[in-house]
Write a structure and sequence with these properties.
The complex is a heterodimer of chains A (177) and B (372). With 177 residues, chain A is mostly helical. Chain A is built from 7 helices and no strands. Classes of the chains: A mainly alpha (177), B mainly alpha (372).
Chain lengths: 177, 372
């Protein structure tokens, strides 16, 4: 019974905080609400008896990445965010770039689908059982990430790399070509 | 009802045995609540000990500073100035609480609270002694430490890394350029040493094969050749140095006290704060120092183990080691001048982080070689 109460508490907190993140006009509050949402998620992980995942969530997202976010928001020092302008001459909106982008998106979807299917194969009842014990022990978790789930792991890192390249392209100034 | 009956019988003269009977039944009724009560008492003691520690550290800092600068330090309040912290607190409490007009109302109030809460919470998973009965005072020995979590190292790390938000938010919410610079520097500082810090922790975790602080301490029992204690300090000298440097940066102490650099930023992130809200920041800093010292003791100095001392009295050894670390903190502050903050960023990314990664790879290779 107390578990149900805490579950709904954390779940409600996560959902409400996430909704408020996109509802805010002040980027500072958005960042803080996102941290609150991560905190609630980490509470849910603890309920799933995965303390390592819960703590990793706090360390990586709330502790490191959001500090970077906050740093950027403070440097911009923008009290309110402006609506984005639509710019046809932007290098990312040219036809050739768009075609390549579509192809890469298609590839990514295929890869992710393959990764998901590969994961589903292991999720027979017995496999699910061993996965549940795997999240408890850090050693077991490391082993399963680097053996059974290698493909999903590598696909995720490529996704992050794509996001980084995208950020660099977006941040490049007009005169830099 | 029960007690009233017992009293009535006691008045008739056959009370002794019945009183004992009544006490025993109360004791049995209390049994399920015994463990929560013990934990509650422990939390109460640790909470107050941390508050006292911050008061003692304020005095110690000023006394040691005075000693190093060949003067007395505080000397007027109480014998040898011993009551100076109480005078400081009374003065701060009676000051007016100000909030700048353009400040963000909510975040300005939230920031000091966030600082102090993370400082206290971080100590929750730090064990500070083996099982002890306190010189036979207790019937059953208790393990010293509030919560025994199997990922304790990471919990401490995650909570202390949340502490930076208090400083960053204070800097931003004050709506003052000096505060903003202080907050910005805190964020920049944090992202440059945090990686090296985590990597040096990982090397110790590899050696101990556990994420539980209690297990890490217990794996440092005994000694080599009957003389040298088996502390990770001797296996991880580079990791230890990196940990200490990152720990000083984490607690924003000199030579890495950029967020409040008095000579350039007035008082940095806490420029606009006054009264109790202001007092919470230095208090959080001192409590963080105690936590960092306690974790350093657990990770590298064998916690409560010392050759020849029975674990029963381990908490005294632990206290001595933590006090030593705290002295080193103060010693460093009054010896080493402050760096520039771009120097810390360069040092963190170009030297500290590669060194800690190499240390981790070497440790991993060693562990693999020894286990194979």
């Amino acid at each position: 019974m107390p578990e149900t109460v805490t579950f709904f508490l954390f779940a409600a907190l996560a959902v409400i905080a996430s909704l408020l993140v996109i509802g805010q006009r002040n980027p500072m509050y958005s960042v803080l609400l996102l941290i609150a949402s991560f905190g609630a998620l980490s509470g849910l992980y603890i309920q799933l008896e995965a303390p390592f995942v819960a703590v990793a969530q706090i360390i990586i997202y709330a502790g490191a990445i959001m500090v970077l976010f906050l740093f950027v928001v403070m440097l911009l020092n923008a009290p309110k965010e402006d609506a984005a302008e639509w710019d046809r001459t932007h290098p990312l909106r040219q036809p050739g770039v768009a075609r390549w982008g579509t192809l890469l998106v298609g590839l990514l979807i295929v890869q992710l689908a393959m990764a998901l299917l590969a994961v589903r194969e292991y999720h027979t009842p017995v496999g699910a059982q061993s996965d549940a014990t795997a999240v408890n022990s850090v050693a077991e978790m490391g082993r399963s990430i680097f053996t059974r789930h290698t493909f999903a792991f590598e696909a995720t890192s490529i996704l992050i790399l794509v996001a980084m390249v995208g950020a660099v392209v977006l941040a490049r100034r007009e005169g830099d070509q | 009802m029960h007690a009233a009956g017992a009293v009535a019988r006691a008045a008739r003269g056959d009370g002794g045995a019945l009183m004992a009977e009544s006490l025993r039944s109360t004791w049995e009724w209390f049994q399920p609540f015994l463990r929560p009560t013990v934990i509650g008492v422990m939390i109460f003691i640790v909470f107050n000990a941390l508050i006292m520690a911050s008061a003692i550290l304020v005095l110690a800092e000023r006394k040691i500073m005075g000693f190093m600068q060949q003067r007395y330090g505080p000397y007027l309040v109480g014998p040898h100035g011993m009551l100076q912290p109480i005078a400081d607190i009374l003065k701060l409490v009676f000051k007016e609480e100000l909030r700048p007009k353009g400040a963000d109302k909510w975040l300005f109030t939230l920031a000091p609270v966030l600082s102090i809460v993370t400082a206290f919470v971080a100590f929750a998973t730090v064990p500070f002694g083996a099982e002890t009965t306190f010189f036979g005072l207790l019937d059953d020995p208790i393990k010293l430490g509030i919560a025994d979590v199997n990922v304790a190292v990471l919990v401490v790390f995650s909570v202390t890394s949340m502490g930076v938000y208090g400083i960053v938010l204070a800097g931003w919410a004050s709506n003052s350029k000096y505060s903003l610079f202080g907050g910005l520097r805190a964020a920049a500082q944090m992202i440059s040493y945090e990686l090296a810090y985590a990597t040096s922790l990982a090397a110790v975790i590899l050696l101990a094969g556990s994420l539980s602080l209690r297990e890490i301490v217990d794996s440092q029992q005994g000694s080599w050749f009957g003389a040298l204690p088996q502390w990770y300090l001797f296996l991880q000298p580079i990791g230890f140095i990196i940990y200490v440097i990152a720990g000083v940066a984490e607690t924003n102490r000199a030579p890495f006290d950029f967020p409040e650099a008095e000579q350039e930023l007035v008082a940095g992130y806490n420029t606009e704060y006054s009264s109790v809200r202001f007092a919470l920041f230095p208090q959080a800093e001192y409590i963080n120092m105690v936590t960092m010292s306690a974790v350093a003791t657990d990770l590298y100095l064998g916690g409560w183990h010392f050759p020849g001392v029975p674990p029963e009295y381990g908490w005294i050894v632990f206290l001595a080691k933590v006090s030593f670390f705290l002295f080193v903190y103060i010693w460093m502050r009054w010896t080493v001048p402050r760096y520039r903050y771009d120097q810390l960023m360069m040092f963190g990314w170009k030297y500290l982080f590669p060194a800690s990664v190499l240390n981790l790879i070497a440790t991993a290779a060693l562990v693999l070689y020894l286990n194979a």
